[in-house]
Amino acid sequence: MQKQKVPYLTADAIIEYNGGIILIERKFPPLGWALPGGFVDYGEDVMSAAIREAKEETNLDMEDIGFFTLRADPRRDKRFHIITAVFAGKGRGVPKAEDDAKNIGVFKPNEIPKLVCDHNEIVCEFLRLRKV
Questions:
Q1: What's phi and psi for 128, nearest 5 deg?
Q2: pTM exceeds 0.85, yes or no
């Protein structure tokens, strides 16, 4: 019996902080600025994964977190077919680049840099709906 290919599942976090959004510069491919996030562990709740990844990469705890969007286009990431669940909330604590994050920044809506994969589309949609 041949093993079936299945998409990978990730969870990303839009973290509002001091009038902006937290972004990380990734240490590993795809390189560049991105939303904090990562792969969901087997047996882990997707929202819990977003909260865990946010803490691991930014040192921030998330408050008032809720589901924002799901992205599933097989072409959204050049490495694999990755489905991501995106959650949004407020960050509490002192931002610090940790784990897979090479750098961290708080970006005002008009300062968002070019992001990896489809993260620009996600952030633009969030800003349009949220009016941050």
A1: -65, -45
A2: yes
